[in-house]
């Protein structure tokens, strides 16, 4: 069985396959967006690796929201502020390519 980690950028906390994020990162996501992630979730999608397009979109939005709150370098797709009423005007999805456990992560903002 393959390990499944939190989807937040550079987070290596193991979580069950049904969970998108670890507790810390999940509760950084606005409740309305958390509900959308669960509404789009389909039981068994972790087993057959076929999540819906709707789930992929809202999951990416949740990951992008957390990345914006953590001040991560942002690259990729841009979403409008309407999806992130408590966030910055635009948010971009981050794709972290750092090896698990790398510290400091190359995606971390300079201190």
Quick summary:
With 111 residues, this protein is mainly α. The protein has helices at residues 23-26, 31-40, 45-48, 53-69; strands at residues 78-80, 90-92.
Strand order of the largest sheet: 1-2
Count the beta strands.
2
Q: For the CA atoms, what is the radius of gyration?
A: 14 Å
The averaged pLDDT comes out at 74
Tertiary shape: globular
Helix-strand makeup class: mainly alpha
Tell me the helix content.
Answer: 25-40%
Strand residues, percent: 5-15%
Biggest sheet statistics: 2 strands, antiparallel
Q: Distance between the terminal alpha carbons, to the nearest Å? A: 37 Å
Order of helices and strands: HHHHEE
Number of helices: 4
Uncertain runs are 75-95, 100-104
Tell me the count of domains: 1
Give an overview in words.
With 111 residues, this protein is mostly helical. The protein has one domain. It contains four helices and two strands; from the N terminus they run H-H-H-H-E-E. A two-stranded antiparallel sheet has the order 1-2. Helix 2 packs antiparallel against helix 4. It is globular.
Topology (elements, then pairings):
Layout: H1 23-26, H2 31-40, H3 45-48, H4 53-69, E1 78-80, E2 90-92
Antiparallel strand pairs: 1-2
